[in-house]
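Before the break, one more example. Copy the sequence into your notebook; we will annotate it together after we see the structure.
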Amino acid sequence: MDLRQLAYLVAVAETGSFTAAARRHHVAQSAVSMAIARLEQRLELKLFERQERRVRITAEGEVLLGHARRLLLQAERAEQEMAELRSLVSGEVRIGIPFMLGSYFFPPILMAFKHRYPGLRIQVEEAGTRALLARMAQGELDLAILIASDLPAELVGERLVREEMVAVVGEDHPWRGRSAISLPEFFAEELALFRHGFYHREYMDQLAAEAGITPRIAFESNLIPLHKAVVRQGFAVTTLLRMAIEEDADLYAVPFSPPIHLDLCVAWRREDPLSRANRALRDFLLEQKG
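Here is what the structure looks like once it is written out:
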């Protein structure tokens, strides 16, 4: 017996008709009838009682029907797994990354992933947290790096890295060399901050509101190089993740007191199973967790 015969058997049993079974499989009714007849001949069993307007499965047919459904399901799963294996050769992954991580943390990790799976196409979207959340909700991204404490109920995440948020000053600033500064000290300075829509900005606004302080914002920009240039020239101070200035010899990180840490996670939609390719990327990222 072959899978085609078993599929016809299931269709006839479920529809009670050779004609309806043929329509389900887009074949002629004679093809279904002949396949069932050959199956009965091979097994030397009667599988259906042919009545005038209805076909009724026999007790022997019921036994085979259970096996047929299991075998067809196993065949479908095998095809799905083979398709997923092919996806690791020629599939696509779509991930959203916040600007700072995209510039300073992820490039070497993504290159290592590409080296492991050279056939995969990697689509990277850099944006603010709110934009990434919207793209995840719309199904435009499969994975995103987000603030763990900020995940909506429809997303699930696993912690990837903990990073410190620090004040950033230039060489001539009096805070250079300080072990820590308070939030009121920070908000009293001329500031360069991200625009609204970025978690980094919204978090600083929240801290200022909790302290009853109105920040003195001199520059608003989503361009990290502009933030750094403003700080170098002494026009303002800013706040970035510590990783963002590790390679800048003329910029200095000053911790907050108490310290501010952000837990970043790799997130995916709770009710939307990831493809094998996206699971491979998620698992690879978690191997690198800090």
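The chain has three domains: 3-87, 90-161+265-287, 163-262. The two ends are 54 Å apart (CA to CA). Try to locate both features in your own notes.
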